[in-house]
Prior knowledge:
Four copies of one chain form a homotetramer.
Chain A: E1 2-7, H1 12-22, E2 27-33, E3 57-58, E4 66-71, H2 77-80, H3 82-86, E5 89-94, H4 104-111, E6 124-126, H5 129-138, E7 141-143, H6 147-161, E8 169-176, H7 191-194, E9 199-202, H8 208-215, E10 225-232, E11 239-246, H9 253-264, E12 270-272, E13 294-300, E14 306-313, H10 317-332
Parallel strand pairs in A: 1-2, 1-4, 2-3, 4-5, 5-7, 6-7, 8-10, 12-13
Antiparallel strand pairs in A: 8-11, 9-10, 11-14, 13-14
Helix pairs in contact in A: 1-10, 5-10, 6-8
Amino acid sequence: MKEVSIIGASGYTGGEALRLLLSHPEFTVKQVTSERLAGKPVTTVHPNLRGLTELKFSSSAELEPCDVLFIGLPHGKSQSRFEEFSSKAEILCDLGSDFRIPNPERYAEYYGEPHRAPELLPLFTYAVPEVNREQIRSGGHLSGAGCIATCSLTSLYPLFASGIVREQRVFIDAKIGSSASGATPGAASHHPERAGCLRSFKPTAHRHTAELLTYLPEANGLAPEVYLSATATAEVRGILTTAQLFVEASVTEADIWGVYREYYGQEPFVRIVKDRRSMYRYPEPKIVKGTNFIDIGFERESGTDRLVVLGAIDNLVKGSAGNVIQALNIRYGFPERLGLEFAGLHPV
Amino acid sequence: MKEVSIIGASGYTGGEALRLLLSHPEFTVKQVTSERLAGKPVTTVHPNLRGLTELKFSSSAELEPCDVLFIGLPHGKSQSRFEEFSSKAEILCDLGSDFRIPNPERYAEYYGEPHRAPELLPLFTYAVPEVNREQIRSGGHLSGAGCIATCSLTSLYPLFASGIVREQRVFIDAKIGSSASGATPGAASHHPERAGCLRSFKPTAHRHTAELLTYLPEANGLAPEVYLSATATAEVRGILTTAQLFVEASVTEADIWGVYREYYGQEPFVRIVKDRRSMYRYPEPKIVKGTNFIDIGFERESGTDRLVVLGAIDNLVKGSAGNVIQALNIRYGFPERLGLEFAGLHPV
Amino acid sequence: MKEVSIIGASGYTGGEALRLLLSHPEFTVKQVTSERLAGKPVTTVHPNLRGLTELKFSSSAELEPCDVLFIGLPHGKSQSRFEEFSSKAEILCDLGSDFRIPNPERYAEYYGEPHRAPELLPLFTYAVPEVNREQIRSGGHLSGAGCIATCSLTSLYPLFASGIVREQRVFIDAKIGSSASGATPGAASHHPERAGCLRSFKPTAHRHTAELLTYLPEANGLAPEVYLSATATAEVRGILTTAQLFVEASVTEADIWGVYREYYGQEPFVRIVKDRRSMYRYPEPKIVKGTNFIDIGFERESGTDRLVVLGAIDNLVKGSAGNVIQALNIRYGFPERLGLEFAGLHPV
Amino acid sequence: MKEVSIIGASGYTGGEALRLLLSHPEFTVKQVTSERLAGKPVTTVHPNLRGLTELKFSSSAELEPCDVLFIGLPHGKSQSRFEEFSSKAEILCDLGSDFRIPNPERYAEYYGEPHRAPELLPLFTYAVPEVNREQIRSGGHLSGAGCIATCSLTSLYPLFASGIVREQRVFIDAKIGSSASGATPGAASHHPERAGCLRSFKPTAHRHTAELLTYLPEANGLAPEVYLSATATAEVRGILTTAQLFVEASVTEADIWGVYREYYGQEPFVRIVKDRRSMYRYPEPKIVKGTNFIDIGFERESGTDRLVVLGAIDNLVKGSAGNVIQALNIRYGFPERLGLEFAGLHPV
């Protein structure tokens, strides 16, 4: 049994890591920290865990050594407190955005300030198993990916890597639930304002663009150009990305099928969803709620060269804690599905 | 491994039984039937099961012998086809309402027609473990309870059984999600009509009243009087029951706590939810979504003799398939939590 | 044209008063105040008014004389600042709860602190036209009623006043949208927590009980006993109250119809909703969204003495600003529907 | 007073026309038809109109002459029954899609079958006032536009017409509520399936593309290329379109402002929504619910040549009946806002 602790376990991603780790047969949760709630039971803020754990929050000052340390802190904290954290655990799993972008210039461009510890960037592996499995296996700390980036990158990667896309430009419209904005209340997350909304919150310059520019392969020798717009929806969990790109006129849907089969045929959490009929013929985030699946679909427009690619994930699972636990399973040589078997609900 | 088949597995309760049984370590799903979808994969209507099973629907005419047969048919079908079904399996688990009410007169009163096979009624045990564990253990076919009845009965039972209620009258307001009405589309379930609704659909004479009148114990020698009103909400899963009843002026909240501790202290799926502060201080259906928990809360009004009791369940799990699987675990001597460990999500 | 100003116009009830007054042909909005937003356009927080008004918020220190002054301040402020406000306007319309309960002892019991200006209580008229039209017409300042109180009181009043109820006890379950909690964000109104919720927020001792105890008539010589429980729902606007009470066994639905016809036959904003079939056979809050209607329905249980009464309103219109504007129409002798003609949307 | 009748008034667009016309001071509703509901009050299916009208549905066989005839029939019916309808009224207002595309080849391409009466196509004017006001004024029958087309076309038109776009390609992601699919229940609109959904229902080849190809002007001499994907959301009303296009590097946000001011400065129902801060800084469909507004916003990405354009409407009002009534106001010389003054609600 590996011992895991979670720094910043009162938030949504930290809480999701806690939920998943509590039922994982190879991990035992040792400590969970929250400065604000130190001494209180975790069920104070994670009511779903009632009856399942007696864990209480500690202060991070009381952190003891462990095998794996999850970090669920606000942006910027991990780069400042790296030494403190890395002295406690062999593997850090950062759920935040401090170590996702290896290039400090690109980081500065998208985050609006220089990285404070660029020398640490090479110590982290970007934890998206479908595109980075071998690096994950071989070592280093793990950086969870951005939720929109995970969904877009995983659904688009084979198309770029295989060279089947004709242009380097991709247009992504991401629809995302409110849990992605975290557990801290604010005006925009006040229920009467957010309920029923379709709110463009980042039409341009979304930070996750930086991850896509980094990890999407070149398309026919050209660096990818990523045009991302993000819309907040009234759901709590879930991301749907709708990507538009261009292929040669001769490319058929069977060709696209072939690419996905080649790249993802063995992936335990990728499902290609493409029915002829039925209302479930494309990926839908509500079907993957609570699961580590990414459902991917596509449609080749007849009469044009357009290909539309759809990706659906649960932003807190495949888009955050679940993906990192999958990466840990890979690292430790555990079965990759371990602790991530939940099938999802229907209807829901 | 016990072999289980499911008659009528294309509906929501049958589908939920399928989801739970597929991941239960002591059951193997043998056949699932749907006349309409015979030959088609179950994922046609249960998209959450993609990648998890290759099962296809059969016609019920092809049903083979098995250990346990779940029946998820529309009201009235089980009583007509009992012989056909009981010849195939040792234990029938009826998710419908044909065998919930042992008294044929009461059945006729609430269902508006005479029972067609009253001689079969004694063969079924009402599968609410918290109030009926010993009968469940000892044998007979199992009848799943009504979802509103399960939530009300389980939350109120100890108060009646202990004699702490002063009056035999209880006023129940049940709020319920749309999945309880089943998978067949209709005008009232058309999304533009049902979305955002708070719709009184059965202010009086709700059929589940009959179960409460049957299984609630007498209160101080008086038969219970149950006044139930049911309201449809915009959620998909979940029931919240708000019950009002009266206790002696001297009864304190500590007394109520004592009663629940006595009756339910060892129950694996009952959680008494009563925090002093916090927004999670009472039971809430969204916290138990996908789980087999029933969360129960209460508040004693100061200045009056009123006690308010709250119950929250997932209507498809604790309110249907999950409760029956718990009963099967009891019958077969499996650990009671087996296959029902899902913790629920937060936020959701 | 009467000049109206609004103190505290940045909140939801103040904003709703503003919306309605801007399109009312007999009122002109002179000033709207907000200390926090002084100098900013009202559209900063009321985006629906874009293009319809150039009004900016003032500080209340700049308040000029006007005919009518609406007060949309947090609880407790109106009683402290009465002199300041009453020196500016002939008629005060308090949307808060400071002047709803004429009896200071009852006020103290339900609000947990003594009223600071009990001598002012007789200066205010409780602005529920259906039960108080003559007092409203004859003078005094106006106190808007509590939203749950408005819905319950208006739907139950004729039954108590006519003597048709047998017992003085009434059991009310109120379901209410998130806008009733106001515009200030907090943990319980954070979207991921509140979305999809059915949350018992005040099972006992709800403050609006005090209004019902005050304004419901005696039932056959007995003071009413009101047992109110309130549940927060995932909707933004709307209240549904489900009330259970008892009538003599001989009372028929036709008798109930008769009572409502007698009391409310001429009411411009009361609709008795009781269809034989159809999904719209009972009142539903989403149908009255944005309107000043109260839809009232009922069902007499066969086999018991129970009567269930349903009321549906928009908490910000009939439950607050709209009702007060209706009262102003009465006071000034304007047509009672003036400025309140919006029909409501369907589907919505 | 002009007399208006509505063919097919039981559906959502016909019902919305009815709602708006009932409160329009220059129109009187003469007859409303529904074969299925002939003889029944309109409130049977439009419960919001209770107390506001005594109208009953007639059969279309009983249709009498009138000034204006609205047609709210399923696709294909108007082209077959044109003579019947045009013999009754001077102006036909077709809310369906039969007469939106003047080019029969394009019609056939997108609708999958030849137009049955191409000779009638020139008799209809496309009723989008912002792009077609003069043609609307001058005569002909009126064809309401597709809801997604209205939102996209109106928000993009000035950019194409002014020549400020650099490329002819535009990428549109449309998010749309469930009322756009009409009042007929089906599997995909069954509440448990549609609630909480983000469902790609037409990733390619959406029919409204044909309208955009027809009515968007050339961009620098090149015919527009429109790449539209449509996603169903869990809302009932509302469309948000997110369009991505390219401008010269030198084009600033001030330039874009200038274009919109030039084209739409006098438009009564266009609001350019672009705040620096605040959660309402971009257009949002829930703010325009029930109104005839189209809110338009935009953002110029720094570092790329991308421009993102946002449009928000209520699909049943500006996206259907409201826009046509605005066109009728133009035709008859009524004030353009007449009968369409509703401000919208907030919060909602």
